[in-house]
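User: Could you check the structure of this?
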Amino acid sequence: MTEKIVFRRWVEVPDVVRTGEEMEKISGRYLEYVASGKNEDKSKARKEWKQLSDKYWDLVGALVDAQTESFPDRLFFDDEERLFIDFGFLNDTVTPKNAKFDPAEALARKTGSGIFQYQTFSDFIAECWAMITRQSVPGPVCASGAVRAEDLEAQLKGLQEKRDAEMEKIVSRCANMTPGDAEKIASTLDGCLINATKVEMRTKEFREAPEDVKQAMSQDRFRYSEAEHAMTTQLSIAQKDEEDPLGLPEAEMFMALHESTGIMARKIVYSRQDEDKARVRAKKVADACGQFSQQMMRRELKNMLLKKKEYMAVPAKVARCEQSLLCPQDSEPMSYEAASRMVEELCDMDMDMFAVPRIRMYGVPRVIFIPGQGLGTYDWGDHTILLPMFPTTSAEKSLAYALGTFRWDSDEDRVLKNTYEHIKENRGKSILEMASSFYKDYFLWLTKEKRGYRILPRDTHKTFIQMFAPRRPEV
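Assistant: Sure, the predicted structure tokens are below.
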């Protein structure tokens, strides 16, 4: 006998109860076939599991319908509902027992702050409803969007303080410099960095600023460049000191620390820009639904989920694994915190991905953690990155595939595609085959080649260097 599926808030809602009972019956038959041990029952078990998996969307739809029936200002999902919607977990018998999955721990997880806005799938559903009904978008469970840029600014301050302290040590080696000179360089670098970054990125804030403001920002960029030149000059002098030369490893570590402040500044600028992009997106959806009746608004929410359903099947297809959104039996769940930290580290190796026209128009894509297995992907229609909670192979591969998909799909000017298709091994491939090859090569590029390991074939290695060579910033 299977354990009953009960959502305590909806025990009197017929659709929720009926769908739950159907899943209990299917699960009972599935467990019987699995327990029999007969070869002829294995195929029957797979069919029952497929039917049970297909019921995921029926039960999600029933839960959403039950909550929108009263047309609330906001949707709220309790712990039981979140476990099912976000992880595909119902209970220990209806969904397989997974020793690596701790429901209480899963609900308590949070992400770190970074360039991306992270959401669970239940966050996404609540956000869609808020936009349709023109309500304020609820804060996500996984990350605090309101303080994301502030958290990044705190991280930047810590990096700058560490860099400035190291620079003071380097300057102390130079006879022609004083601690006061080092402090002046550090002060200019710290104070002018954000404006210099906005000018270099040619942000809307800079382009549309009054002429006097634009000139002041340009001056900050000039001062930053001059201070950076003075810093690298002193670094070179310290390396050439005859009595106590600065070692190459120490110099490289210092420059890596300095470069990390620039990367963090770009993340802050993108995060600040995303606040406006999010408001524009919410207004666009609200305006489109402005004349809808309540019934039409509920139907629009279903349409948005139906579109997302199509893309949520892609991760399993790419990984060629079981296409089920129910909690798998043995795959290790991905940690929100570890995943957000890892994806930020991967992005640091390819920050030019955020310079594509699609991001200038729509902002940085949101990251949605979805139930099920597979490799991460990018949803072009909704401008979101989808990360399955139970990645196949490794979390790092899933995240790299998601970024690779975004890189490929956002290459509207074919800057990457036109170069990549000329690799000898790619000639004659279909566009789908070439995309699949790119995801694999991009994964190896980020996780191996960028860390100093030669893995890719020679021609592919040279092509990736060409495709991702640092570009001169626009002026």
